[in-house]
Amino acid sequence: MANEANRDMNRMLQATKITDNRNFRNMVGKGYYFSFFIALLILATIWYFAAHKINKVFIFPYLESVISELIFAFTDLHVLRNIGITLRRVLVGVYYATFIGFPLGMLMGYSPFVMRTIAPFINSLRQIPTTTWVPLAIVWFGLGDGPTIFVIMFHAIFTIILNTVSGVQSISLDYYNAARSMGATTLDVVKDVVLPGSLSGLITGMRIALGAAWMSVV
Q1: Rounded distance, CA 160 to CA 13, Å?
Q2: N or C: which end of the chain has fewer CB within 10 A?
């Protein structure tokens, strides 16, 4: 049972690393923004000429019309207010995910017992589609911000946990041995070795979670 839990967690950690490595920015490298600008310019050129060639605005609107409406939308106070509400929900949801997931990820990465105990539950909950929680979230929290924040938090928390675990497990054993050789207690090791060493995983997890959280806004 313990070996199976460890294998499941290792697969989840590997999947998280692969997902991050497949990020377009990581794949393209330093020329990411230049390549993005060129691709956007090519797409806009194709869109402009294709729309005028088809000449059916209900099927294929003109590029200049879309840009004009986009500029108008960003000057409309109603649209800006709703963007602000959505942004607040995303940030609050990721904050709660970090508040819960970061210490849990540190414990799982540091303690094999905690890892074996919690990993099966984490692995099981990750398989549940985020949208299936929406009816329950409405029952639990009512209408308003509550259900949306809960769904965002649920979507982001596993990314925070897994990346924090990965950050803790990447800490060299030499740091643990050096701290213990100088008389550090378990609390000192967690405070001076595990916590700083896990911050890189936390930052990566928050970056990925913020991007993924926008996909779970309902």
Answers
A1: 11
A2: N
CB neighbours of residue 10 within 10 Å:
12
Total-model pTM: 0.70
Rounded to the nearest 5°, which phi and psi values hold at 58?
Answer: -75, -25
CATH T-level fold of 2-216: MetI-like fold (1.10.3720)
What's the pLDDT tens digit per position in 110-159?
A: 888 888 888 888 877 877 787 788 888 888 887 777 888 888 888 888 88
Which residues lie closer than 8 Å to 137 by C-beta, 6 or more apart? 146, 147, 150, 151
Which residue has tokens 């509400």? 85
Could you tell me which of 54, 57, 58 has the C-alpha nearest to residue 46? 54
What are the domain boundaries of the chain?
Answer: 2-216
